[in-house]
Design brief:
Layout lengths: L8 H9 L3 H6 L16 E5 L11 H21 L6 E5 L6 H14 L4 E9 L13 E7 L15 E8 L2 H8 L7 E7 L2 H5 L6 H6 L6 E5 H6 L18 E7 L7 H9 L6 E6 L27 E6 L4 H13 L5 E7 L6 H13 L8 E7 L13
Parallel strand pairs: 1-2, 2-3, 3-4, 4-5, 5-6, 6-7, 7-8, 8-9, 9-10, 10-11, 11-12
Helix pairs in contact: 3-4
């Protein structure tokens, strides 16, 4: 018997989990005792092949390949003998929703899946998705969710990622209110502008009341603005005492109307350790005169903030004042990192000048390291930078 075959079963299963599923299946030909080992691995990942994106192939050919791919998944699930703790499927789903419905129903009826990733396109999950009550991790991409999915709750769910998901604000609040233990949340869903124009009664208080235990949060500024049409308080009634990492994306420009929203979140997050901001090109190419109101931040002290990162596509003078303001409010700040997109309006010389200005600006932390760079294709991942 070879050395690997003498390893404990759980070690062998862990090794097989690092292999693509097709390679794990191929280990069945190694020896008799390996024939069914792959049927017990607790982590299954199914990623579509190049045919899924090859536009040179006809739609019919691609659909046939997708059906073959899903048939193989169904066969694996039928043969699988052990528990499945993690399940991932990544696929363009045009015209094959029923087959994926069957796979999710099979998972919900036979296995206690704890981590589920659905990276799909224009796909509406079946109700059986919400019966996976053992889930601790759920990643949905390219899915369309009902406003009021019928389920009791995701009582064990601690991490939820909604990426390019279609859902209305009332549906989002309904979903979050049924995830009482949520600690990690990424919101990157499609806005329903019709429902926004018609108005709604939900406020930013309703949104954050659903997140009493949140520790890591990524949210687009557009989504925050959807919840403030009916006004917002100076501080949230339920302070976000557990929030350590806040990433606000897709900010066009901090001006007097948007500044109070950011101030509200900072004021309501007394234990914040990491703050990331993403700025896009301003919707108004001309420099705006309505700069931030420093008075909005007069009672804010970021006592625990140790990392502040900003990604700019285009730079605004009032945003620069905001950076200096954060520097003056953060006593234990260790790193200030500013990245300018190479396709924007900041050159390497501009970056060095900004770095010098920040170095001589008043800052509360004597040990802060200031990094200013012009970069290309800088797309950090929220899930890879979480605070445990």
């Amino acid at each position: 018997m070879d050395i690997i075959s003498r390893l404990p079963t759980d070690i062998i299963e862990a090794i097989l989990c690092f292999l693509p599923i097709d390679e794990a299946v191929r280990t069945s030909i190694l020896a008799r005792e390996w024939r069914y080992r792959w049927t017990k691995i607790p982590k299954l990942q199914f990623m579509s092949g190049p045919w899924d994106f090859d536009r040179s192939l006809s739609k019919t050919v691609r659909k046939i390949e997708r059906c073959k791919f899903l048939y193989a998944i169904s066969q694996v699930l039928l043969i699988h003998e052990g528990p499945i703790h993690e399940f991932t499927i990544s696929l363009l789903t045009s015209g094959i929703s029923d087959e994926i419905h069957n796979i999710i129903h099979h998972l919900s009826s036979k296995f206690s899946v704890k981590k589920l990733t659905l990276n799909l396109t224009l796909y509406t999950p079946p109700s059986s998705l919400f019966s996976l009550r053992q889930l601790t991790y759920l990643y949905l991409s390219g899915c369309e969710l009902d406003d009021q999915p019928s389920f009791i709750e995701f009582g064990s769910l601690t991490s939820l990622f909604l990426v390019d998901v279609s859902i209305r604000e009332n549906g989002l609040v309904h979903l979050l209110s049924h995830c009482p233990r949520l600690k990690v949340l990424e919101l990157n869903y499609e806005l329903d502008y019709e429902s926004i124009e018609n108005g709604g009664e939900l406020t930013i208080i309703d949104l954050f009341e659903c997140l009493p235990s949140i520790e890591n949060l990524s949210i687009s500024f557009d989504h925050l603005e959807c919840f403030v049409d009916n006004g917002f308080p100076r501080v949230l009634p339920s302070v976000l005492v557990h929030l350590k990492y806040l990433w606000i994306k897709d900010i066009f420009h901090i001006h007097e109307k948007r500044s109070p929203i950011i101030a509200l979140l900072l004021r309501s997050s007394p234990n914040l350790e990491k703050l990331w901001l993403n700025f896009l090109e301003d919707e108004d190419p001309k420099e705006r005169s309505d700069a931030i109101k420093l008075a909005d931040y007069s009672d804010i002290w970021l006592e625990h903030l140790n990392e502040f990162q900003i990604i700019y596509r285009y730079f605004k003078r009032s945003d620069f004042e905001f950076v200096k303001l954060i520097l003056s409010k953060s006593h234990v700040l260790k790193k200030l990192k500013i990245y300018f997109d190479i396709e924007g309006d900041i050159t390497e010389d501009d970056a060095r000048e900004i770095s010098v200005i920040l170095l001589i600006s008043p800052h509360a932390s004597p040990a802060v390291e200031i990094i200013v760079e012009v970069v290309e294709n800088f797309n950090p991942s929220f899930s890879e930078n979480l605070i445990p």
